[in-house]
Amino acid sequence: MTDVQHPKLSVRGLTRRFGGLIAVKDVDLDLHEGEVHAVIGTNGAGKSTLINMLSGEMPVSSGTIKLEGKDVTRMPQPHRSKAGIGRSYQRTTIFQEFTVLENCRLAAQAQSHTRPWHIWQASQHCASSLERARDALGRAGLEAYANTHAGSLSHGAKRQLEVAMCLATQPQVLLLDEPLAGMGSEETERMLGLLGDLKSGHAVLLVEHDMDAVFRIADRITVMVNGSVVATATPDRIRIDPVVRTAYLGEEQHD
Ligand SMILES: Nc1ncnc2c1ncn2[C@@H]1O[C@H](COP(=O)(O)OP(=O)(O)OP(=O)(O)O)[C@@H](O)[C@H]1O
Ligand SMILES: [Mg+2]
Asked: Which CATH class is domain 1-84+173-187+201-255?
């Protein structure tokens, strides 16, 4: 159930400048457990920059990010990952020559080593990383491919693996940057099924250009234009929002 009073992740006034360019401008956003919250917007709208700030990979220019009420705005990325914010990338990050299981295990292991001086715990970490990796593969429906080289997977299965790698870090919040990019219809269906399953127990932020998929899967949609949020509402309301239609969906119809 969505707890409207207590968002998992709460963002206020988030801004990122690159010199004179304001890529993300004064963004407010609340992500709730049990919801897929899509962020849509044309190329360069600031979606990936927003994810980069939420994951801790890019410092904010101003604004605050709270995870379960705790201010994590200046928390370094590895600590934020350990605290429960996981992400997948717009461009692939898998090691092609490693197996599917090894990729997941590396993701789990990288995250558990925020304190490298705890080296004596290494073997214990290995065992728990393997368990987390297997669990993540199961949730992502990839158990059968555990020992397959990642490089030989289909494009859709590679994107599933990236979600599994994110799950291996045991996140509460999943930040997914275009997980459906380049997928055929069957692969899209499989991924949408997975995202639907994942929302129980997680807050999912989905950046995606596939509008049919977004309107089917999202519980809430935020529309960004030139770095600013122009609307946040349910899919039904977004579809008929005149500002959104002019600023974004209208453009799509002329493509
Ligand atoms: N590291 C950077 N240095 C300078 N400018 C950047 C940097 N990263 C992003 N930008 C700029 O910030 C703006 C937002 O980029 P961003 O990648 O967040 O857009 P996006 O909404 O993810 O687009 P797309 O749908 O194409 O992935 C763009 O104008 C981009 O050129
Ligand atoms: Mg992007």
From this structure: alpha beta
Q: Which residue has the tokens 């309107």?
A: 215
Distance CA 159, CA 179 (A): 6
Domain ranges, ordered by start, for the chain: 1-84+173-187+201-255, 92-170
> Is the shortest distance between the CB of 41 and ligand 1 below 6 Å?
yes
Cα separation, 42 vs 207, whole angstroms: 11
Nearest bound ligand to CA 39?
1
CB 215 within 8 A of CB 36: no
What is the separation of C-alpha 24 from the centre of its chain, rounded to a whole number of angstroms? Answer: 17
Query: By C-alpha distance, which of 130, 223, 196, 142 is closest to 168?
Result: 130
pLDDT digit string (tens) for 36-89?
999 999 999 999 999 999 999 999 999 999 999 999 999 999 999 999 999 988
Residue whose Cα lies nearest atom 11 of ligand 1: it is: 23
- At 240-253, the pLDDT tens digits run 998 888 877 655 54
Q: Which residues surround ligand 2, an ion (CB under 5 A)?
A: 47-48, 90
CB contact at 8 A, 139 and 168: no
Q: Is the CB of 23 under 6 A from ligand 1?
A: yes
Q: Tell me, using a 6 A CB cutoff, whether residue 59 lines ligand 1.
A: no
Among 47, 51, 206, which residue has the most ligand 1 atoms within 8 Å of its CB, making it the best to mutate?
Answer: 47
